[in-house]
UniProtKB/TrEMBL annotation:
Key word Signal present: yes
UniProt GO BP: glucan catabolic process
Residue span(s) of domain Glycoside hydrolase family: 30-302
Assigned EC number: 3.2.1.4
Cited SUPFAM superfamilies: (Trans)glycosidases
Pfam families reported for this sequence: Cellulase (PF00150)
Family that this chain belongs to: Belongs to the glycosyl hydrolase 5 (cellulase A) family.
Catalytic activity: Endohydrolysis of (1->4)-beta-D-glucosidic linkages in cellulose, lichenin and cereal beta-D-glucans
This protein's name: cellulase
Keywords: Glycosidase, Hydrolase, Signal
Secretion signal, residue range per the UniProt entry: 1-18
Functional description taken from the UniProt entry: Has endoglucanase activity on substrates containing beta-1,4 glycosidic bonds, like in carboxymethylcellulose (CMC), hydroxyethylcellulose (HEC) and beta-glucan. Involved in the degradation of complex natural cellulosic substrates.
GO molecular function: cellulase activity
């Protein structure tokens, strides 16, 4: 989803408490993973670095716990590269930002769920398209070094590359994989994303070259995004039709099968209305029918500052928490 200006509501700092270990293996879900995006640390990207509590906030671990109690087992945690490494892509960490991010990650993984590290950067750093694969590889090597011993961390190379050279997108993803493995992070999954906002509906036309990515650990997962409004941007609560969900993922499913790849729907949403609920269900049913290649899905989005945002799944007042979660719970 494209990042629009967000209205920031009152800041509330989440308190960190010990999470009980849940046995996710008992779940009857058709998916390995079912969860949500956690927004906050990437907010206010028009002010860099911005101030904690004013431009951005970290996800609230108590509401993450509420979603875990519902059975969710994957949380995609957005952050900004410019805040994590303020001086340059290859520079040192802002240790305070890293600590806050790590606290959320550890909360999720200590509970037995997977935490997806999502640099929400659209293939850009300080507003410019990332063109140095070598710098990007170093960035990922440095990040992965910090999380190398946590096998429940998943590395997502970047959120939604767009309007970039197609070979560059391929090479940036490969550089990230190489950097992560060079850091000794060898057990973790890596989510790769494609150009054109990593859309599932355009994947085959745009991102076919991504099948060339290689990983010595063979743990690449293709992360695609899909919204169900007319332009697929996820900015409207109106879905095109009740069948648009399954229609928009079908070519991507065929691509995954043909090429022997695995995928995850890393972002999806529809408005809280009957047409969208049927469309969302149709899409998830289609993924579930091909769960050999589709490992799961993550709703867009939860997070403490969404307010009355049309897709907010933040417990307990988010409009999708009250109006859409019951539809999603069939897959938990
Ligand atoms: C996840 O978070 C950010 C918003 O803060 C957004 O820009 C990105 O596109 C999100 N994914 C979805 C589903 O929108
Ligand atoms: C980290 O979180 C604490 C609150 O727990 C806050 O005071 C601090 O400003 C945050 N720092 C950054 C860089 O986000």
């Amino acid at each position: 989803m494209r990042f629009d200006r967000l209205i920031l509501l009152a800041a509330t700092a989440g308190s960190v408490v010990a999470a009980p270990v849940k046995n996710f293996a008992k779940r009857a879900s058709p998916f390995q993973w079912f969860g949500v995006n956690e927004s906050g640390a990437e907010f206010g990207n028009n002010v860099i670095p911005g101030a904690w509590g004013t431009q951005y906030i970290f996800p609230d671990t108590s509401t993450i716990q509420t979603l875990m109690d519902k059975g969710m087992n994957i949380f995609r945690i957005a952050f900004l590269m410019e805040r994590l490494v303020p001086n340059s892509m290859t520079g040192s960490f802002d240790t305070d930002y890293l600590k806050n991010l790590t606290e959320v990650v550890d909360y999720v993984t200590n509970a037995g769920a997977h935490a997806v590290l999502d640099p929400h950067n659209f293939g850009r750093y300080n507003g410019a398209i990332i063109s140095s694969t070598s710098d990007f590889q170093t960035f990922w090597k440095n990040v992965a070094t910090k999380f190398a011993s946590n096998e429940k961390v998943i590395f997502d190379t970047n959120n939604e590359y767009h309007d970039m050279d197609q070979t560059l997108v391929l090479n940036l993803n490969q550089a990230a994989i190489n950097g992560i493995r060079a850091a000794g992070a060898t057990s973790q999954y890596i989510f790769v994303e494609g150009n054109s906002w990593s859309g599932a509906w355009t994947w085959v036309d745009i991102n076919d070259n991504m099948k060339a990515l290689t990983d010595p650990q063979d743990k690449i997962i293709y992360e695609m995004h899909q919204y169900l409004d007319s332009d697929g941007s996820g900015t409207s609560a109106t879905c095109v039709s009740s069948t648009i969900g399954k229609e928009r993922v079908s070519a991507a499913t065929a691509w995954l099968k043909t090429n022997g790849k695995k995928g995850i729907l890393g972002e999806y949403a529809g408005g809280v209305n009957d047409q969208c609920k049927t469309a969302v269900k149709g899409m998830l049913d289609a993924l579930a029918a091909d769960s050999a290649v589709w490992l799961g899905a993550m709703w867009w989005a939860a997070g403490p500052w969404w307010g009355d945002y049309i897709f907010s799944l933040e417990p307990t007042t988010g409009v999708a928490y009250t109006g859409m979660l019951s539809t999603l719970e069939a897959y938990l």
